[in-house]
Write a structure and sequence with these properties.
The chain is globular. The protein has helices spanning about 25-30, 45-60, 110-125, 140-150, 180-195; strands at about 10, 15-20, 65-75, 80-90, 95-100, 130-135, 155-165, 170-180. Strand 5, helix 3 and strand 6 (about 130-135) form a beta-alpha-beta unit. By secondary structure, the protein is an alpha+beta fold. An 8-stranded mixed beta sheet has the order 1-2-3-4-5-6-8-7, sandwiched between helices. The protein has 5 helices and 8 strands.
Length: about 200
């Protein structure tokens, strides 16, 4: 697998552009809604916390373990969220797609499906990944259903995996898509996006 490098990915719905510190203020404008964060171990509640969130993502990028993107709605050219490749493991041909959130008014639209289509296509077709992982809080039924809808396979639950800011110990559900499964997943995603 090739090492993921900053790149801009686009389709008719979204543009994923390399995250920079300049995105922090736009992300804060759409990302301080408490409704976005109930399943995230450490919610973001201020512009300063958003700046720190972006800085941590960029530090992970500098260490070669993540590649973060800003999600831009091409219809209005607005930054509406963020996503990233994480847990990048080049020798073992795998990475994770996660840390994804979008403004509440863009949820249940083509935005998230479009972003996942871009990230999965780049991972399998350009980078040569063999395995892409996704994970979510076991209590987050909406996210679990969305991951299954794109064609991922649920692998298991890591019990009491992450300590949340609230003190709750989160169970984490892991999913994956393999390179051999990608043609069917790609077809499914493309059919869904064609219907939007």
């Amino acid at each position: 697998m090739n090492k993921p490098e900053p790149v801009t990915l686009r389709n008719p719905h979204v543009r994923l552009e390399p995250l920079t510190p300049a995105h922090a203020s736009a992300l804060a404008r759409v990302g301080l809604d408490p409704a976005l964060w109930p399943w995230i171990p450490a919610p973001i509640t201020s512009a300063e916390e958003m700046e720190a969130y972006v800085a941590r993502a960029l530090d992970e990028q500098a260490r070669g373990v993540s590649l973060p993107f800003a999600i831009v709605d091409v219809a209005g050219e607005h930054v509406i969220g963020t996503t990233r490749y994480a847990a990048i493991d080049v020798p073992n041909l795998r990475l994770e797609i996660g840390w994804t959130w979008v403004a509440r008014d863009r949820q249940r639209t083509a935005i998230n499906t479009s972003a996942k289509r871009l990230l999965l296509g780049h991972a399998f077709d350009a980078l040569g990944a063999n395995r892409v992982e996704l994970k979510t809080d076991a209590l987050n039924r909406q996210s679990r259903a969305a991951i299954l809808r794109i064609g991922a396979t649920q692998e298991g639950i890591l019990r009491q995996h992450v300590r949340c800011a609230s003190g709750r110990m989160r169970d984490t559900v892991y999913f994956s898509i393999l390179a051999s499964e990608w043609p069917d997943v790609r077809r499914r995603l493309d059919d869904r996006l064609a219907s939007h």
